[in-house]
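Hello support,

Our group uses your service weekly, and this is the first time we've seen a run hang past the timeout. The protein is ATPase H+ transporting accessory protein 1b. I'm not sure whether the cause is the sequence or the server load. Input pasted verbatim:
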Amino acid sequence: MKSSAPRVDEIIGNALSLMKAKKVPYTAIYTGLRPSRVISELPVSDQSVGRTLLQAAVPDVKPPIIFNGSGGPCIMLWAQNLSVKLSENSPWINLAEETPTLPGSFCDGSTSRLALTYSSGFSLSFVLRQRFYSVSARNWSTLDTVELKYRNLSASYIANRGIYTPAEYSFHCQSVTNFGDALLFPNITDQNSSEWRLNFIDFQIQGFGLSNSTDFSYASDCASFFTPAIWMGLLTVLLMLLILVYGLHMIMQVNTMDRFDDPKGPTISVPQTE
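Update from on-call engineer: The timeout came from a worker crash unrelated to the input. Re-ran successfully.
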């Protein structure tokens, strides 16, 4: 490369001198028959063609449990966990990890029952009913009862106090339990209802208005709009507004002096003798 540089420079100089002597406009392009350096190329198979970002694999989301009636899907249930506990010292059992069968499930215009039977011996059933309420002039769906069976034992829970939604909607709640902030209340006729524990995480169910679809309708969530934190914030703001209004009211009640000393009159003398 270095040895050929003077020869190339001489050729370029001669060409430029020749063109200047003829006094004609020109455009020169310097090129070669082959590159002086050969760049090695890797085959496509040896190059990385995928994403190289390190990220966690997206977990597979299990499909919802669907019961098909005579006209198509009529009951759907999905939950991240369906955990049950039979005693204080027994471990939690997550039924959502098992694949259930649906014998005993049915649905009609007013009642839908989803019965889940597991190979571990547990049986879990949900009974939803649709009723018309004249006050709201619409149909509402309520989860009336939740029943858990294990072998020859059973427990029944009433759920219609807090689990309800318009009939065309689905119901969703992050936590449905029979303890703590409970939505499931034990039936007084069952002794096991007060001992057994149910904990449903990310629970969603719909028993009416599926319209032959495999997707849930709009979810009516159990979380109230005014949470305790929102109420505390509103009360704090209201208290501060009351203090501000009271302060402005007191300032407006201050009266200015409308009579002043006459500058043309005699001044006030204060004797300083004892």
